[in-house]
């Protein structure tokens, strides 16, 4: 999607966290579907891949989304520090870490 939308290839989007589309969720979903077709939906390998897909999607949606919100708050706190504070020159944290429900 990003390749066609931005008219360029960005490998960081494939390997990085956050953003749209979720390459991690897409990869584990494709793996689960492929195993389901190959071994059948009653196989233990499909069950394992399905659990893995659920864990990855939960991480992408829940944990990283909240970590991104915390990064936003911490960046605001550091921004409001006086210039003489030892942490005033701290590099901002990356905020878009997770996915929203539509993503």
Automatic annotation (TrEMBL):
Keywords: Membrane, Transmembrane, Transmembrane helix. The chain crosses the membrane at residues 14-37, 43-61. InterPro entries: DUF212. The keyword Transmembrane helix applies. PANTHER family: ACID PHOSPHATASE/VANADIUM-DEPENDENT HALOPEROXIDASE-RELATED PROTEIN (PTHR31446), ACID PHOSPHATASE_VANADIUM-DEPENDENT HALOPEROXIDASE-RELATED PROTEIN (PTHR31446:SF29). This is Acid phosphatase/vanadium-dependent haloperoxidase-related protein. It comes from the Eukaryota. It comes from Taxus chinensis.
């Amino acid at each position: 999607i990003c390749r066609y939308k931005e008219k360029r290839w960005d490998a960081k989007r494939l390997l990085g966290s956050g953003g749209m589309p979720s390459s991690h969720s897409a990869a584990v979903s494709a793996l689960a579907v492929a195993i389901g077709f190959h071994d059948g939906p009653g196989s233990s390998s499909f069950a394992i891949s399905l659990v893995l897909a659920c864990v990855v999607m939960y991480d992408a949606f829940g944990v990283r989304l909240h970590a991104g919100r915390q990064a936003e708050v911490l960046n605001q706190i550091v921004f409001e520090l006086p210039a003489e504070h030892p942490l005033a020159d701290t590099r901002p944290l990356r905020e878009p870490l997770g996915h929203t429900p539509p993503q």
